[in-house]
Design brief:
Order of helices and strands: HHHHEHHEH
Strand order of the largest sheet: 1-2
Largest sheet: 2 strands, antiparallel
Number of strands: 2
Oligomer: single chain
Distance between the termini: 58 Å
Low-confidence stretches: none
């Protein structure tokens, strides 16, 4: 059985990289998840109950990617289910569906990297610039 990931464990990890490693799923692009039940997934993400818990998670994580200060999200915020959901979870309103303990705020690139285990998708910090660093003849 797969280990259940939770926010209480995640916040004990101090760095973005450690949190990413804790969450990564190593999925496969094109692997079917909901298939013909995709309508359930889409209906759920438009529900009032989802929007309410989504706002709670964004506030709890202070609008930061994986809840890490310094990784503020300035664009669209995604809420990642730390444990993959299945159609049965939506039908039964499983605890992992709407419990903030199993959700984390993220950006699209980080979300994709988590699902497909590809660190190259992660947003990296800008390289600090120095005077004349692009002019080798001025060193």
């Amino acid at each position: 059985m797969e280990k259940i990931r939770c926010y209480s464990e995640l916040v004990l990890l101090p760095t973005f990289e450690e949190r990413f490693q804790y969450l990564r799923l190593d999925g496969v692009v094109g692997q079917e998840t909901f298939g013909f039940d995709r309508y359930m997934n889409q209906y759920f993400y438009r529900s009032k109950e989802w929007r309410r818990v989504r706002d709670i998670v964004i506030a709890r994580d202070a609008g930061c990617d994986l809840g890490i200060p310094g990784h503020e999200i300035f664009g669209r915020v995604l809420i990642h289910h730390m444990n993959p959901i299945r159609p049965e979870d939506i039908r039964s309103r499983s605890d992992i569906l709407l419990n903030p303990e199993y959700l984390i705020a993220t950006v699209h690139e980080t979300h994709q990297a988590i699902h497909y285990g590809d660190e190259t998708l992660l947003i990296t910090a800008p390289i600090p610039r120095e005077r004349n660093d692009t002019c080798p003849w001025k060193h």
